[in-house]
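Narrative of accomplishments. A recurring question from our advisory board has been how the design workflow behaves on a single, concrete structure rather than in aggregate. To address it, we present the structure tokens for one chain from the evaluation set, followed by the sequence designed for it. No filtering or post-editing was applied between the two.
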């Protein structure tokens, strides 16, 4: 299902009908603003953030984390290569929900895997995208 195909006001919220399950792919495309500091993609339940994907230009990394009952876990920051996002440039992030992790690709190149910390995948019912970007398309 294509939820949006042009620039939308941020933060942008999209329902994920049926929640997540293995091999479901969520795709987010946009353009990083020229003076961007950060943007984020969150997979959320009613009360928790199951997966927080947060490119930070002011820190030159991509932070990943989970927030359960208002408490953030340990951040993951390591990357296998240089920061894949560039200010002023377009991007496509594809996140595949696997049985044990989220597998993240940026512009068709595998970036990282993030192990599930919140196990009830079907409870992950919405996506939130926000920060310093122009959002062009979200597919769930």
């Amino acid at each position: 299902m294509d939820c949006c195909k042009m620039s939308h006001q941020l933060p942008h919220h999209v329902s994920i009908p049926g929640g997540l399950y293995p091999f479901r792919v969520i795709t987010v495309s946009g353009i990083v603003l020229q003076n961007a500091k950060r943007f984020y993609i969150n997979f959320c339940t009613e009360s928790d953030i199951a997966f927080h994907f947060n490119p930070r230009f002011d820190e030159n990394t991509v932070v990943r984390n989970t927030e359960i009952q208002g408490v953030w876990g340990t951040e993951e920051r390591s990357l296998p290569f240089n920061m894949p996002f560039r200010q002023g440039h377009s991007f496509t992030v594809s996140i595949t929900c696997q049985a044990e992790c989220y597998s993240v690709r940026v512009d068709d190149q595998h970036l990282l895997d993030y192990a599930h910390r919140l196990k009830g995948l079907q409870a992950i019912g919405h996506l939130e995208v926000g920060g310093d970007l122009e959002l062009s398309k979200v597919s769930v």
